[in-house]
Amino acid sequence: MENLILGNKIIRLDRVESTNSYLQEILLKPNCHEGLVVVADYQTSGRGQRGSLWESEMGKNVILSFWLKPMIEIENQFLISKVVALGVVDFLKKQTTHSVHIKWPNDILINYKKAAGILIENTLDSKIINGSVVGIGLNVNQDSFGRFPYATSLSIEAKKEFVLEDILSELLKHIEVRYFQLKNGLFDKINSDYLDNLLGYQKVLKYSVVGVTTYGEIAGVSKNGKLQLKVNSQLQEYDLKEISLDFNDLQTR
Amino acid sequence: MKTTEIQELIKFVAKAGVSEVEIQDKDFKIIIKTNSGKKSETQTIIQATPAAMPIQAIAPVAQPVAVSAPTQAEITKPAAASNDAKYVTIKSPMIGTFYRKSGPDKPNFVNVGDDVSSKSVVCIIEAMKLFNEIEAETAGKIVKVLVDDGSPVEYDQPLFLVDPA
Predict the structure, then answer these.
(1) Residues of each domain in chain A carrying CATH 3.30.930.10
(2) In a shared domain, residues B104 and B63
């Protein structure tokens, strides 16, 4: 692998509780370098958003975690989320002709269905983020998602099987490119590229806002990651817990 | 307090599902901690305090878990304003949601009475799926947890009081 940092060392596991937790544990030992990657065929308790589980069939998908040392101020933390999401999007756009979007804050959709999830855990030194454990679950060859009607995989959308090893190395390459934009302070580019790839940006979509059906268009994302939604020409800011996208309605558009 | 009374109390706390109870009387102080849901892991810390110690004003502690009314009256701790001055406050570096543990089935990072080093993780603040581990930054003993698990916190909001070592 010709990456400068990401994936220079890869730890491969058959099964693990959670790649993020595993990586966090081994980081306590010395001699761990930025860019260390942990991949697993199967996670027994993979974590999605707090409390929810990320389910994945054994050996079908890419489940990985890697370690970054962003050394950026805590107030810029959402940029880490953005560069990782953009790296995944850049990669997926080369694999499929279908639309690829970021669903705020950092889910990745192919053809309006969820194909990847990201979970980031930071450590702080005072107000500087000195470590980020980034977990990504990308559905690759899984061909059915049972009780999740709005989930998909690369294979379903591209109508072919993929070699997981190739996917892993390409994915890491694309994320690294975006990560270096962060390290080089290209915040404006990251922010504008994020919006360009954000589902619902300047487009009216149907949401549920604290249980109430609401049509709105995304005007932007605040510095701390909140969604800025224009509803009846009024700008509102929402937290993750307050708003959810109507996936059913999305499929009909 | 008799040994049998203490045993009864421990059993009661374990059953009630509360994570931490601290009781102080004029000549003793008892702190009972449970790992949520795991009754077998109840630990008890009993500290004898000098009998001559003045009786401090008591104030009820907000408990996130509902317990029956008579028990709540027993759950008291000193509200010693003069003492708080020597304590170091751990503040939130960001807006987000405060979590005392890494997952619903995990133990708290720290409890009242725990010794922490400057590198000890005391909580997680989450915002938009970014989870930030907050370190104590001061070595000492946790004397107060100021925010309930799962509550929203503001920038610079005090989270813990630490008695510096």
Answers:
(1) 10-196
(2) no
User: Residue B157 is part of a domain; what is its CATH number?
Assistant: 2.40.50.100
Query: Would the CB atoms of A129 and B132 count as touching at under 8 Å?
Result: yes
DSSP A152-206: --HHHHHTS---HHHHHHHHHHHHHHHHHHHHTT-HHHHHHHHHHTBTTBTSEEE
> Is A156 exposed, middle or buried (CB count within 10 Å of its CB: 0-12, 13-18, 19+)?
buried
| CA dist list (Å): B71 to A138, A208, B29, B76, B149 | 49, 41, 16, 10, 21
What is the chain B residue with the closest CA to A80?
Answer: B130
Residue B103 in contact with partner chain A when CB distance is under 8 A: yes
Domain residues for the domain of B34 are 3-74
pLDDT in tens, A152-171: 999 999 999 999 999 999 99
B145 and B90 part of one domain: yes
Residue B156 forms contact with A (CB below 8 Å): no
Would you call B130 and A225 a contact, using CB atoms and an 8 Å cutoff? Answer: yes
Say what the ipTM of the complex is: 0.86
Are the beta carbons of B77 and B89 closer than 8 angstroms? no
Same domain, B101 and B51: no
Fold of A204-251: SH3 type barrels. (2.30.30)
Overall number of domains in chain B: 2
Residue with structure tokens 């509780």? A17
- At the top level of CATH, the class of A10-196 is alpha beta
Question: Smallest Cα–Cα separation from B111: which of B25, B18, B26?
Answer: B18
A3-20 pLDDT per residue, tens: 779 998 999 999 998 999
Residues of chain A positioned with their CB less than 8 A from the CB of B95 = 224
B117 to chain A, any CB pair closer than 8 A? The answer is no
**What is the spatial distance between Cα A100 and Cα A108, in angstroms, rounded to a whole number?**
7
> What is the C-alpha to C-alpha distance for residues A59 and A74, in angstroms, rounded to an integer?
36
